[in-house]
């Protein structure tokens, strides 16, 4: 009887140990949890939202235009922004219309903000060429976002991953946020 209990305890300790190691590996290499602080991605993502970031996706695939990514902004902070330009793109905004390599692009995530404008522009006019190894990122709340217009291009190596799930608040639960 004593031997049976000892074996059972050992099995539980092994199972818990393996579970803990798997949790750490998944957290380090596959997915991470982020809490949003700030209003730069409103209305798509709001202050206090909790997100799951897919860290492995960019090891096997490319970062695409309009992905929402988390990246290391500096030593202490990570930012959440939308990718507008990838390496080699020429990005131009004229009269609040985005042109990528000369082609106009639809930005439905800005529709709500554009409706609230009376006379002014949301993004402002600009033209940039995205260098190799860099991204041009903007917040969806163009008037309240510190983004590539302010701090420049983001190194692709600083990207943590793509936002894959908003799980808080529960009413706003959403996979593959766009």
From TrEMBL:
It is found in: Cell membrane; Membrane. It catalyses: Cleavage of hydrophobic, N-terminal signal or leader sequences from secreted and periplasmic proteins. It is a single-pass type II membrane protein. Its EC number is 3.4.21.89. The keyword DNA damage does not apply. Keywords: Hydrolase, Membrane, Protease, Transmembrane, Transmembrane helix. It is an enzyme of class 3 (hydrolase). The chain crosses the membrane at residues 12-31. Its main location: membrane. One of its GO terms (molecular function) is signal peptidase activity. Pfam families: Peptidase_S26. Residues 10-168 form the Peptidase S26 domain. SUPFAM superfamilies: LexA/Signal peptidase. It comes from the Bacteria. Belongs to the peptidase S26 family. PANTHER family: CHLOROPLAST PROCESSING PEPTIDASE, SIGNAL PEPTIDASE I. This is Signal peptidase I. It comes from Bacillus spongiae.
């Amino acid at each position: 009887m004593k031997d049976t209990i000892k074996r059972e305890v050992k099995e539980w300790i092994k199972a818990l140990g393996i579970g803990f190691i798997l949790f750490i590996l998944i957290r380090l290499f596959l997915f991470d949890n982020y809490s949003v602080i700030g209003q730069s991605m409103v209305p798509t993502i709001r202050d206090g939202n909790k997100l799951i970031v897919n860290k492995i996706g960019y090891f096997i695939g490319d970062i695409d235009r309009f992905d929402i990514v988390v990246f290391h902004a500096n030593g202490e902070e990570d930012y959440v922004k939308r990718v507008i330009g990838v390496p080699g793109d020429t990005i131009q905004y004229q009269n609040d219309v985005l042109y990528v390599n000369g082609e106009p692009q639809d930005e439905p995530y800005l529709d709500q903000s554009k409706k609230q404008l009376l006379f002014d522009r949301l993004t402002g006019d600009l033209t940039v060429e995205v260098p190799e190894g860099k991204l041009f990122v903007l917040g969806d709340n163009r008037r309240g976002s510190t983004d590539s217009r302010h701090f420049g291009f983001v190194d692709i190596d600083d990207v943590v991953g793509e936002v894959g799930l908003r799980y808080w608040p529960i009413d706003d639960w959403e996979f593959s946020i766009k």
